């Protein structure tokens, strides 16, 4: 029978893990003690090195939305004394906490939006997700279950849809609880900083320990919010693996805040404790969110990637068979044919049409008289007809025709005499004016034909430009497509961080989201639901940080950043009136050019 190890002994792996935890603890302890023994200037210098080391090693995320602290609150670049050095370190801790919490909220929100979109889909969409969008292993398992249930039962599709709904609901439930806890933590921290900002500047000796104690209490409250997640986990949970150990934060020792001031070592230990608790929070959330997050892109589209990989493999084998490595010259011939086809396309649809348009624009209209029918010939025919009409009218009426008489008036005289001559056509053809009238009409018909031919020649010459433009249309459309793709790439017109129409729409939707959360927060306050109002306020800060981050670059481009920044900060003030906040949201979407839709800008 195997002997049981003593209770006070541990396995080698446990001992190694304990050693791994003790090394950074004692390293930090020795570093803090060494720093406290050195002079003030050296302590400041070592503090800077410590901050730089922590920023380099730790997973620090940059924060965009400013903390609700006075502008004179010292940071790492404005260290002048021991007090300001400690204050600057606390400022760095607060920035790290805000940045990490906002980043985790963003990861949770993205996964939550994904699961909600899938849960709102049809049954066929849910079944497709369960089989084809969870990886090859899930594809094999779900396909096997579906086929077996189809053979044994009639409700295989219904069972698959129920399994999909349960799969999504469980993940949404955990993500919502994580989001609510983090949002409440963020709201409490933001409100405390807004309340204590002036005291932190005027009386930092008393305010800094109080603030650190409040932060320690907020971590303790967050620990309680996460504790029930493990108890509520279902036995038949679809989440792979087990949950991490329940989150347990370190706590500050009992300190008399109303008595003597904290020593430098106590402040340093409290700051390091806040860093350690933040690292624990990030580690816990990375595991919890990782187990309930949306599938990765490779997992979602593994079928497409697999088909693409198979197609690429087949294409590579086919390409290898026609390459020079296998003694074939097909690829060289295809490249040569493609080169010739490209050059032919460029010549037929780009070069020649452009040259033709240029020649037509500069030569055709300038040399239009050198055509099938010249203008001088038409003018000669017209002058000849005018003289014939004038002579006929003077002989027929025995009166001098006025110089300003038109051809139409004289032609009427000719036609009247022509009608009289037709009464005795044979006699008048030999001795009258009938033959002369016929010749004048022939001359008139010749003039009409020449005029029509001249106009037709001009129309044909003008249409040569149209034909050249028509030949250039394929190249023109191809250029438009390429320019559109290039414009989209340059503007990065996607989501909320671009400069195009789609980015503007996303930024305006963020303003709408902020407005809805302001109204929801006020509604919960009026109903006395303080806990829900606290959660909504944390989500409001998260939405403001997202808009703050994406609108900064376009607002700087339009020289509106200072005003936009101030309005966003006003929206985050806890004590600001709701009516004023709603006025600010309306101003954001109606005044600032960086948030206006494209049509209004035009």
UniProtKB/TrEMBL annotation:
Subcellular location: Mitochondrion membrane
InterPro entries the UniProt entry points to: NCA2-like
GO cellular-component term (any): protein-containing complex
TM stretches of this protein: 301-320, 465-486
Name by which UniProt lists this protein: Protein DGS1, mitochondrial
BP term (GO), one: hydrogen peroxide biosynthetic process
Membrane topology: Multi-pass membrane protein
Organism: Arabidopsis lyrata subsp. lyrata (Lyre-leaved rock-cress)
Alphabetized Pfam families for the sequence: NCA2
Keywords noted in UniProt: Membrane, Mitochondrion, Transmembrane, Transmembrane helix
